[in-house]
Write a structure and sequence with these properties.
The protein is an alpha+beta fold. It has ten helices and ten strands. It has a five-stranded antiparallel beta sheet with strand order 1-2-3-5-4. A three-stranded antiparallel beta sheet has the order 6-8-9, with helices on one face.
Length: 302
């Protein structure tokens, strides 16, 4: 039987799924997990090690359910093994996308059908309970965490929470899909023939506009590319209400990322400059907020 290790590499090496001794190789880049590449019997595997992170709503039962459903829907690589704190999937031979890749119209045309398959295909494959990822509740939760911890940024919260309330009203009633909810470029893999989505830490039921807004904000889309994004997703020119929802969720995704980083300043033990990351995301949120207000004014004047 496997036992817990303080050393994640030793924990991975000790999994009883391997044919013999293996040498896990660290993969850089994870902020909420420790990742490894393992070779065994001529096959390559991606191994994620990480416990629940309740303060961020990361629950591994939910991640596993999403990963298995995403595999069945043809969105994500196959799950090979899972046990508490460990997820092993097939390693995709390919390249991780960069932000500039997703700003290329040809790449966007490949990415949007994958997002739609995530939203609708995973619903058909999902088994057992799964979480909802409602960004505005997350903002409320993070504000409480920051107040309880005496964050140095508490003075910012009243204005940010009022902006969040305005954004939530602007989104209005939603269609419920199953969202990835963390559409960073690094979570897209290109194997030369197709794209894959990975990393289901924050997966859950949501409005499609959160993933569309997150894709735009994470990869710095301009207004023309946002129009193209909406047209590709809906198969027609976007309506004014859809532009408004996109602008609201784009701002909300950046607000959530800012507060996520503020909470991480206090609670994370990872060696990462969260202060700088907070400032970067607050600046991006303020620009997105200005864009949202402009869309609101245009909607009001017809």
């Amino acid at each position: 039987m496997n036992r817990p290790y303080d050393d994640p590499a030793a924990q991975v090496a000790g999994l009883d799924i391997w044919s013999g001794r293996v040498e896990p190789r660290p993969i850089e880049g994870g902020i909420t997990n420790t990742n490894f590449l393992v070779e065994d019997r001529g096959e390559r595997y991606f191994v994620r090690v990480g416990a629940d992170i309740p303060v961020h709503g990361v629950m591994r039962f939910n991640e596993l359910a999403a990963a298995r459903a995403a595999e069945a829907a043809g969105v994500s690589p196959a799950v090979v093994h899972a046990e508490p704190g460990v997820l092993v999937t097939r390693f995709v031979e390919g390249r991780t996308l960069a932000e500039a890749d997703l700003r290329e119209p040809a790449m966007l045309e490949r990415a949007v059908p994958l997002i739609r398959r995530c939203h609708h295909g995973i619903l058909e494959q999902l088994r057992g309970p799964a979480l909802m990822f409602w960004v505005f509740q997350i903002v409320r939760h993070y504000a409480g965490v920051l107040r309880d911890a005496g964050s140095k940024r508490v003075a910012l919260l009243p204005e940010l929470q009022e902006q969040s309330r305005r954004l939530e009203r602007a989104v209005g009633p939603i269609e419920v899909v199953f969202g990835h909810n963390d559409l960073l470029a690094a979570n897209f893999l290109d194997d030369g023939e197709r794209l894959w989505l990975i990393d289901w830490d924050y997966a859950g039921f949501n409005s499609p506009f959160f993933d569309l807004g997150g894709l735009s904000s994470n990869n710095q889309f301009d207004p023309e590319l946002e129009e193209r994004l909406l047209a590709l997703y809906f198969g027609r020119p976007p309506a004014p209400a859809e532009r408004r929802a996109l602008a609201a969720m784009k701002a909300a995704s950046l607000l959530r990322e800012s507060l996520w980083s503020m909470v991480s300043e206090i609670h994370s033990g990872i060696d990462f400059d969260f202060d700088a990351y907070t400032e970067e995301n607050l600046a991006r949120f303020r620009r997105a907020w200005a864009d949202f207000e402009a869309v609101e004014r245009d909607s009001a004047t017809g």
